[in-house]
Design goal:
- The protein is of the alpha+beta class and 956 residues long.
- It contains 40 helices and 14 strands.
- A hairpin with a 5-residue loop joins strand 13 and strand 14.
- The longest helix has 42 residues.
């Protein structure tokens, strides 16, 4: 008893656990559905609805932090900030590394003015992403809101250090510094203001306001030297800025540096006329004159020299003072007077050279240098001056891209030990810039020979070879020196650069085998080189070495490429290799990991379409339907999948499902032409030709096929018509005049509904012995499963069978096949009657239709048999067609001609025939057909019969 009790308890425990597990799984599924609906509602801005879905989802899965985090966001968007804060803090408690929750909390604390808490969350996020520009900007904003300007300044400075070239951050830091200066000025803390202005100038060296403010600050402090220094810095950064220039002139005036002020003004006037500066110059000269009138020795010596030009003491003083004070005009006049007396004076010529250089009159300076060199060719100082001048002048010409003069200057000094090396470097640079590559190569080779330990020249040569497009030579040289210098990073870098240049060149030449080898070598040297990795894959794919490419990706993972990128590359190779199933599988896995990545989704859909097409081409429609359905789940808006899928379903006869798919896609693309056409096609297959025509009318016709489109509309309009009349004439001739005859036929066809049609037919024949008429009625009926039957009865007064009846059943199978089973009864005007069994099959091949029938006819104890085949070849518009047929046996092929039954049932006969049926328009068509019968009446005798049939058919 105890053992039975134990078993029962065990059974109940297992059952309860199973139920709990199933409930949990169900809840999970349900919570995922609610979460998905919440995100959809949130994306539309309906956060109230989204919050409701999240709350319901959490009841199912209370420990799902993704749902709770999104609920916190919804509360935040709804303005329920306390609830949002409480919810998000619970999320961080359970999942401390979450990023989005902290971003939401920053927004919440900012709105509730709890700035300190917001800063704490920003700091926590910066520990995760220390170089996030957005977070640093937010932190600066928060400190500013707290009016903690010290920390705001410090954070802005740190941000500027991280992103020194970012214009937005530079502007922000600059504005913060200016605000700080404003506060310091209010507190009259001028020294601290000076520090801030210095930082402003450092950040914005072309901002004149910074220089002007700093000059004013130094002036208030009485530090005129520093103020003048800042003015000079400002004019160097912003030449001829009037505000800074005026400040400098004013400072020089304040410090009684009148001569320097005059020089500054004169320099300004040399750059362009200015009435205001002429006025200032006159004022400054007058003020200087008054100041120096009784105190300056220069004025006194000037009076002495004017009275006695031969006074050497006065001359020497005036010249040296003019040079020191920048009185270059006065100095030049004095030197010229001295040179008249002593034209070869080395000292005067050197001072004249100084004056010309100070005035940047390079042409006159060059003449003086040449003159000194000619006068004192053996003087070491003059030689050095000449060489230095030539070198400096060549550098100046080089910087101004005056390469011709620069080259001449460097060549002058290239043979002197002091300048040889540097001149050769400039000569190489000039040849390279002018693309004189042979001269550049000769120069760099000489430098390598003369200075073998200077590795920079090897790097220069590699650069030059690449510029010369000698990529092979550059690669070989770079590889050689990398192997010789494995520890030098510059050679490793140059080897990588040369390899990539060579690879790109080889790619253009499509030498993929060599691309593969070099890319692999580069990866051996640097296994994490992304470009080499991509080129290695590309070369293998280009050579269709797909298996090698796949193995390459799988065995060489890069640290810099995450699993997503690797899988995308692998999927791309699978696609190139035609392994679309593998590519699709990989991309589906990625889509599950990254469901909101639109680029990935588009790639997946494109690949799935290619994969489905290959399945269509191999007639694997069951699998391709599955793929098209998956595409529609991933992207319900995709039109290609909808159209391809409905094409298959139309062929399978699933018209209801086809219409559902078209309608669901038209929701996203209301007037998409191909979808409108597809819907019209489905209506046509359903037999609703009016709706089919309406949708095909809305379909935008191709510009190059307007008539085709019009014919299509006319055809659909004609299919709406219920009535049709056929008028036919059959003329028969033969080798025997006894068999010559003709038959006229009038038919009326009526479509009763989509499933039923009747045909009323009258046949007329005139003979020498009288007139015969036959009346017939046919009934055609279709079933829902596409099966159908055709029944016919007829009577006549003469020549035709007295009574006739037939019934055939048609059953489609395997999409393009249809079988026929039938029987017909014929009673002649004499006592004879015939019973015929029919077994047939037909198949459709695109625009070709083929039919074959076997017939067995019984008359009493006699049996006759025949085989009949025919085909139709539809032309371009799929309406006009050519028909061909053949027949062999003893059963009459055409029972309208009763003499065949009367005369030739015991003879074997053969028949071949052909015809053409043409639509004049959508309603009316004509046809003509000819048949040739051959009857074997004895072992040596044959009779030929020729039928010509013409018909006119029209619908109304």
């Amino acid at each position: 008893m105890s053992k039975n009790t134990h078993r029962i308890l065990k059974f109940f425990a297992i059952s309860i656990l199973s139920l709990l597990l199933i409930t949990n799984l169900s809840a999970q599924d349900s919570s995922d559905e609610y979460f998905t609906m919440a995100r959809v509602a949130g994306s539309k801005g309906n956060f109230s609805k989204a919050a409701n879905y999240c709350e319901r989802a959490l009841k199912k899965s209370p420990l799902d932090m993704d749902i709770k985090e999104y609920l916190g966001k919804c509360y935040m968007e709804l303005g329920q900030l306390d609830k949002a804060r409480f919810t998000l803090l619970e999320v961080l408690k359970e999942s401390p590394r979450r990023v989005d929750a902290r971003h939401y909390l920053i927004n919440i604390e900012t709105q509730t003015k709890r700035y300190y808490s917001a800063v704490c969350y920003a700091n926590e996020l910066l520990e995760i992403t220390p170089y996030s520009k957005g977070l640093w900007l937010r932190k600066v904003q928060l400190y500013s809101l707290m009016q903690n300007y010290v920390e705001a300044n410090r954070s802005a400075k740190r941000l500027y250090q991280i992103f020194p070239e970012d214009s937005e951050i530079k502007t922000l830091y600059n504005n913060i510094l200016k605000d700080e200066v404003t506060r310091l000025n209010k507190n009259k803390d001028i020294p601290s203001s000076v520090d801030q202005f210095e930082k402003i100038i450092e950040i914005s060296p072309t901002d004149p306001e910074g220089y002007l403010n700093l000059i004013n600050a130094y002036t208030k402090m009485g530090n005129y030297a520093a103020a003048l220094s800042i003015a000079d810095r400002g004019l160097q950064a912003i030449p001829l800025h009037s505000g800074i220039l005026d400040k400098k002139i004013g400072l020089l005036d304040e410090t009684h540096e009148y001569q320097k002020a005059i020089s500054v003004i004169e320099e300004r006037l040399r750059k362009g006329e200015s009435a205001s500066y002429k006025t200032v110059l006159n004022y400054m000269v007058a003020k200087a004159a008054r100041f120096y009138k009784n105190s300056d020795p220069f004025v006194l010596y000037t009076r002495i020299y004017d009275q006695n030009p031969k006074d050497t003491e006065a001359f020497d003083y005036l010249l040296s003072t003019s040079l020191s004070r920048g009185y270059f005009k006065q100095a030049e006049e004095l030197i010229n007077k001295g040179l008249k007396a002593n034209p070869s004076s080395k000292d005067l010529l050197a001072k004249q050279l100084y004056v010309f250089e100070a005035q940047k009159d390079w042409e006159k300076a060059a003449n003086i240098v040449e003159k000194l060199n000619n006068l004192y060719p053996n003087d070491a100082d003059v030689k050095e001056k000449y060489r230095n001048w030539a070198y400096q002048k060549a550098k100046l010409d080089y910087n101004e891209q005056n390469y011709k003069e620069a080259l001449w200057g460097f060549l002058k000094v290239s043979q002197t030990p002091e300048y040889k090396k540097y001149a050769a470097q400039y000569i190489f640079a000039i040849h390279s810039n002018q693309k004189s590559y042979p001269d550049a190569l000769q120069t760099i080779n000489s430098l390598i020979t003369d200075y073998p330990l200077e590795h920079q020249y090897i790097l220069n040569k590699i650069d030059l070879l690449m510029a010369m497009e000698d990529f092979s030579g550059a690669y070989t040289l770079a590889k050689e020196y990398r192997e010789k210098n494995p520890d030098k990073p510059e050679f490793a870098h140059m080897y990588a650069t040369a390899s990539l240049g060579y690879i790109r060149n080889l790619n253009k030449k499509e030498d993929f085998e060599k691309v593969k080898a070099i890319a692999d070598e580069l990866l051996e040297a640097n296994p994490q080189h992304l470009e080499a990795y991509n080129y290695g894959i590309g070369a293998r794919v280009a050579m269709k070495q797909y298996e090698d490419a796949i193995a390459f990706i799988q065995t060489r993972p890069l640290l810099s490429v995450d699993s997503k990128e690797l899988k995308l590359k692998l999927a791309g190779v699978y696609a190139e290799a035609g392994k679309h199933e593998n590519a699709t599988t990989l991309l589906l896995e990625l889509h599950k990991e990254y469901p909101f990545n639109d680029s990935l989704k588009n790639t997946l859909v494109d690949e799935m379409l290619v994969y489905a097409k290959t399945l269509d081409d191999s007639s694997n429609f069951a699998k391709s339907k599955e793929i098209y359905n998956q595409i529609r789940v991933i992207n319900p808006k995709n039109t290609a999948a909808a159209i391809k899928l409905t094409n298959i379903l139309i062929e399978e006869g699933d018209l209801v499902r086809s219409m559902q798919i078209v309608d669901s896609t038209l929701v996203y693309h209301k007037d998409y032409p191909d979808l409108l056409y597809q819907k019209g096609l489905v209506f046509e297959k359903m037999g609703d030709f009016k709706s089919a025509r309406d949708y095909h009318y809305r379909f935008m016709k191709p510009l190059e096929k307007p008539q085709e489109h019009k014919d299509r509309l006319d055809y659909l309009e004609s299919k709406e018509l219920k009535n049709q009349v056929n008028v036919s004439y059959l003329n028969t001739t033969s080798d025997s005049t006894i068999l010559n005859t003709s038959i006229a036929t009038l038919e009326y066809l009526r479509d009763l509904n989509k499933k039923n049609k009747i045909v009323i037919r009258g046949n007329y024949a005139g003979r020498k012995t009288g007139v015969g008429a036959q009346a017939e009625i046919d009934w055609y009926h279709s079933f829902d499963n596409k099966a159908s039957f055709a029944a016919s009865v007829g009577i006549s007064n003469a020549y035709f069978p007295k009574q006739k009846a037939s019934l055939s059943y048609f059953q489609p199978f395997s999409k393009v096949w249809q079988a026929e089973v039938g029987a017909r009864y014929t009673k002649m005007h004499d006592s004879r009657s015939f019973l015929t069994g029919i077994l047939g099959v037909e198949r459709t091949f695109n625009n070709v239709w083929v039919n074959a029938k076997g017939l067995i006819m019984q008359e009493g104890n006699s049996f006759y048999h025949s085989i009949f085949t025919q085909s139709r070849f539809f032309l371009k518009n799929e309406k006009n067609y050519v028909t061909a047929m053949a027949f062999m046996g003893t059963v009459p092929e055409d029972q309208k001609l009763d003499f065949q039954v009367n005369t030739f049932t015991s003879y074997v006969n053969t028949m071949v025939g052909a015809g053409y049926y043409h639509y004049l328009n959508a309603r009316t068509s004509v046809g003509m057909q000819g048949n040739w019968y051959n009857f074997k009446v004895s072992s040596t005798a044959y009779v030929n019969q020729y039928n010509l049939f013409v018909t006119l058919r029209t619908r109304f």
